[in-house]
Protein: Dihydrolipoyl dehydrogenase
Organism: Halomonas beimenensis
Amino acid sequence: MADKFDVIVIGAGPGGYVAAIRAAQLGLKTACVEKWIGKEGKVVHGGTCLNVGCIPSKALLEASHKYVEAKHDFDDLGIETGDVKMDVKKMMARKDQIVKNLTGGIAGLFKANGVTAIEGTGKVVAKNQVEVTDKDGNTSTVEGDNIVVAAGSVPVEIPPTPLTEDLIVDSSGALEFQEAPKRLGVIGAGVIGLELGSVWSRLGSEVTVLEALDDFLPMVDSAIAKETQKLLKKQGLDIRLGARVTGSEVKGTEVVVQYTDSKGEQEITFDRLIVCVGRKPYTKGVIGEGVGVELDERGFVHVDDQCRTSVPGVYAIGDCVRGPMLAHKASEEGVMVADIIAGHKAEMNYDAIPSVIYTFPEVAWVGMTEQDAKAQGIEVKTGTFPFAASGRAMANNATEGQAKVIADAETDRVLGMHIVGQHAGELIAQGVIAMEFGSSAEDLALTCYAHPTMSEAVHEAALAVDGHAIHMANRKKRK
């Protein structure tokens, strides 16, 4: 007889493993199916985020930033370092160790919480059955009253640049370079492209980013996006907008890329090429035919606001459903679904999900942009404050960037917050909490912030919404 569980989760990424642990904590007999084979030939947990995404990329971003600081910026602080060098192989080994520690940690959490880890590829074959195929091709069936599909996503490949083993790679391959290529091409000026481009630019690569869109970071407030583009260009990233890649050719150890822009057909040669044009849901083969779970034309599982599919008892979360492909969004959906299965009332505020680009300076945002508000006919008032006027930013040698607060002109409710600057990914939590509690810009303005901190820029931006900023010339008349 097949094993029987209260909950079966397919996928042990940040959505799946969190859902499984939460369900087990709530007293539900839970299993989690995972097929990811790690570098040591064994199944590992953590999905894309821990293995080839969020965590390893941040390890490389942090290491490469410290290298640049030591090489170019320490002198401003009075620190003499001499000839600074980067051991790329050692940097990569550290990154791999961090990944190993974290993926092993999930296995420990499963054991501590009583989650049954099942190795293999999971496929929903009925509303209460999952077929598991192990690495040797053997199949078995696991039964569960509830099924949570958390299969994640994979990089999008494009016909003009088919991947090769070493020269043309996706984001995963870009995390494995053992030396900085002299000429590096990046297709896509999104979050992943800018982060990986930054890493290798800091380590000496001449980086050219080809972006098909005419606008830079259209999901970010236009003022913040414009400043970010300026700062990245200053760092050496050659970002070419409106550049649509049409073909590529491998010539020996080089890649010749053809693209079109406003000037016509262009050609450029690289030593390595990274393709970062987005990700697509990994649902093919995960949902069996005849189960009844609906997919849209792009392969996303159709769900309601609480991640229920069209089949009772079957849920889907994370990258394989609507919404931003973010690890923390997947995790919160996992918690919500586990709570619902356990009989609790749970929901998620999709209007207050933060996003971060971990370049330097970081870019972070939550809620509406000014252009969003305008498109929806919402009248807003805004306040900005530059880090150049922040005492802590001066002390940190990190005066680039600004904080911006967007509030409803009539109600003063905070509709969005956008930041480019040091630690923006940490500072944006203030905007998330403000929006979660329905705060007004005045609420933030009346809050006492520690001095001196980078967070004071958010305080001043909130004050500036009504022209009350203290540490810069006010452009609005006080009320």
In short: The chain has three domains: 3-155+280-348, 168-277, 352-464. Residues 3-155+280-348 form a domain with the FAD/NAD(P)-binding domain fold (CATH 3.50.50.60). The radius of gyration is 24 Å.
